[in-house]
Each structure stands twice: as structure tokens, then as C-alpha cells.
Amino acid sequence: MSRFSSTPRRRLLDALWPWLCAASVALSLLMLAALLALLVVRGLGHFWPATLEEITLRSGASVAGQPTREAPLPQAEGFERLYFTANRDIDGVSWRWVNLDDIVSRSTPSDLIRLERNPWGDFIGRLAGMETGGQLLREDQAWRYLTQALALPQAERPDAELLLVTTDGQTLRQSLSGVSQALAPNAMSWRQKMHIWSRNVWQFLSQGPRAANTGGGVWPAIFGTVLMVILMSVIVTPFGVLAAIYLNEIAHQNRLTRLVRIGVRNLAGVPSIVYGVFGLGVFVYGIGGTLDSWFFSDTLPSPTFGTGGLLWASLTLALLTLPVVIVATEEGLARIPDAQREGAVALGATRLEMLVRIVLPMAIPAMLTGVILAVARAAGEVAPLMLVGVAKLAPQMPVDGEFPYLHLERKFMHLGYHLFDTAFHGEDVQAAMPLVYATALLLVLIVLVLNLTAIFLRHYFRRQRGSEC
């Protein structure tokens, strides 16, 4: 009897195999959808004007804040709720856990307001009045004046002081110049909240960070990430393609060539921090220090290229992603039929003409595949950048109106590092967590846009050349 004869076990495996494969795909898609849903809900939800609650406790104390989450009480029955109460300059803390059994009443008064301030963070309470030009404005009149003043540019705002009152009766004077936004979310309609949400998202995308990266926007980090990835792609693509052409089209296929291929594939698995150490030692201190001694000796001991910067970060990531581009391009070259090469040579083309006019155009989709993989890895790398140029806050952008316009020696901000710094080194990590989710979502979207651009180019060249690579 043949060993391939049908048995009940084999028939069962044949029936279950497609379902197991389908289940694996479904589970993978489900986990991916759950990740994206978490980032969208936690990230974009941060910009929505949340309802403020005022609660009264059994002790008679009154607390106002934004409810965030609930958790079971440690070593006891029941639950407690975490409120963001703000008012760090008054209470010393911005968060408070409240036992649900201690809450006597809950309400959402329309006169509760939330102010975004610098440097003390948010305030939650009531606006009692405003002093401006020797005149005292009360409540509604003060609120209208405040919203009109905040609509003006910072330099045109009048000198004024806000008279604020917390729900437990404490008073506070706040300068208008330190207020960036004032909201009364409980009194806002859905349309008004949608307008505020869109404005907050735009400010997040277009402004710079503030309050030790726990507030404000991420525009410098967006710009730095995209610019670094573009420079890295420009550097790594020609080197990776030329190396793949040599290995597949020029070099003799012997033991040495096989060893080189093995080495290239092993380099793809080297931890990224090792590339960062290499970039620090060779690019920054080695090449950068030499350039400073040759061309910028007048500025020494203050380094110009002998310190981390955009150029060294791009070169380090280009080195990190070089094996990916080489392998992808070589795989594409290997799939081109030899008949294409032989036909071109038989028609009188030189070897160089055959490579440039026949082989390389057919391998363009494979090259772009390598670039896609390189971009996906480089955009999210953080560890090597910490050694070769990324900064918590870059005072100057790498591109400006001064010659030579692109300043490769400057430090830059990066979304991955911004995310890491916000999550672990902020003044208030709990308050910064929504910004962490929003930054992570933005990083995913940027990688997606860059990858989709390369994918569309790859499909375009496939249609143009009819290549199967």
C-alpha cells in the first residue's frame, strides 16, 4: 500500500488545514485591528472636550475633574475611579482616586471650565471674574471677554488677570498671558465640541511641544522623521542596488560569494543599538571629528560635525537597512529570466547596456520592495538615534531660509524618540499617556503613507514593464 493512501487521520488533516490557515489569518487581522482601534480611540479621543464632573463625598468635600478609568480596590471589595483634577499649583497633585462608595452625588455643572496654562498645567474650576484695565468683569461678561482675548495672537492680548475658584472654595489669580485655551465642555453642543476637536488635532500636528513634551504639538518631530527617512532612502538605495547587481550579475558564483550573501543576511539581524554604537564611533567621532579639524577648526572645541546630527543619523540608518535593500533587490534580479539577458546580448547590446536597459528596469519593483521594508524599519527605530543625533527638543529646524538651507549637522526631533521621552520622562506621565497614543498613531500613519507611496510606484513600474518581479 502506498504511504500516500487515504486514512481517516489524513482526511481529517486535509479538512482542517484550510480552516487553520484561515483562522491564523483572521487572528492576525483581528490583533492588527485591535491595535489600530486602541491607538485611534485613546489617541484621537484625547482631543475631544471631555465632560467634567463635580462630585460630593461623604466627608462633605467637593471634587471636580475628568473621570478617566476605574479599577478594583486593593485588598477590598468595590471599585475606585481615577479623576484628573488638575490644579497642580493649588493641590500639589493633578490626579485623585475616589472610592465609588464615598460618592454621595454627581453632577455636570455648565459653569465648570478647563483652562490650559503654562507652566502649571490645566485648571479645573469656575471663573469668578476678570480684572483688566482697572475694571472688574463678572462671570458671564468675563467669560465672553476671555474667549475673545484668546482668539487674538499672543502679542495682541490685553493685560488681564483671571479670578478663579475651585469647587472646594480656594481662589487663584491667573495671568491671561499664561492661558492658551479655555473651555466650558459641559455647556458645549456636539457641533462645538467637534470644532474644538478638529482645532486641537490641527494644533497637535502643526505646533511644537511644550511642558517638557507633555503638551503642545509634534510638528518638529514629524518634519524630522520624514526628512531623515527621505535622506536615508536616498543614501541606501544606490548602495544597496549596486551591491545586489555585483553579487548577482558580475561576481563569480563561488564559495566567497556565498559567504558574502550569508554575511549580508546576518547583518539584517544585528541589534539596532550596535549600529548606533558604530555610527557614534565611526561617523560622529571619526569622520565628524576629522571634518571639524579640517574645516571648522575656528569653532573648536565646540563641535560642528563632531556631534550627533541629521547626517550621521541618516547614514547610520542607511547602514542598518542596507542588508534589506540588497536582499530584496538581489531576489528580484534572480527572478529575471536568463533569456532576457541572452536576447539583449544576441542583439548586439553590451553587458552594461543589457544591465541598464533590460535588467534594471525589470528589477525596479524589487528595488522598491527593498525601499519599502527599509522605510518601515527605519521610521520606527529609536535606539541608534539616541546615540547619533536625535534630541528631546531641537531649538532649530534642519531646514530654514539660511544658506545652505539644509543643515545636516543639526540635531533633530523624531516621533519614535518623542514617544519614548513623553511616556517615561515627562513631568506627568499619566497625563501624557493620551499623547503617547496619539503620537504612536501618527507614526503608524506616516510609515503607512511612505510605504503606500513606494507601493504605488512599484505597481506603476510593474504595469509599465510587465515585470513579474
Topology diagram in text:
Elements: H1 8-44, E1 53-57, E2 62-72, E3 79-84, H2 88-91, E4 95-99, E5 103-107, E6 113-117, E7 123-132, E8 135-138, H3 139-150, E9 160-165, E10 171-175, E11 179-183, H4 190-206, E12 209-210, E13 215-216, H5 219-250, H6 255-267, H7 272-295, H8 310-334, H9 338-346, H10 351-380, H11 385-388, H12 415-425, H13 429-465
Antiparallel strand pairs: 1-2, 1-5, 2-3, 3-4, 6-7, 6-11, 7-8, 7-9, 9-10, 12-13
Output mean pLDDT: 87
Percentage beta strand: 15-25%
Biggest pleated sheet:
6 strands, antiparallel
Q: Spans with pLDDT under 50 lasting ≥5 residues?
A: none
SS-based structural class?
alpha+beta
Total strand segments = 13
State the helicity in percent bands: 40-55%
As a whole number of angstroms, the C-alpha radius of gyration is 30 Å
Compact summary:
Helices cover 54% and strands 15% of the residues.
Please characterize this protein's 3D structure.
This protein is α+β, with helices and mostly antiparallel strands and 469 residues long. The protein is built from 13 helices and 13 strands. Strands 6, 7, 8, 9, 10 and 11 form a six-stranded antiparallel sheet that branches. The protein has a five-stranded antiparallel sheet with strand order 4-3-2-1-5, with no helix packed on it. A two-stranded antiparallel ribbon has the order 12-13. The mean pLDDT is 87.
Features of this protein?
single chain, 469 residues, alpha+beta, six-stranded antiparallel β-sheet, five-stranded antiparallel β-sheet, 13 strands, globular
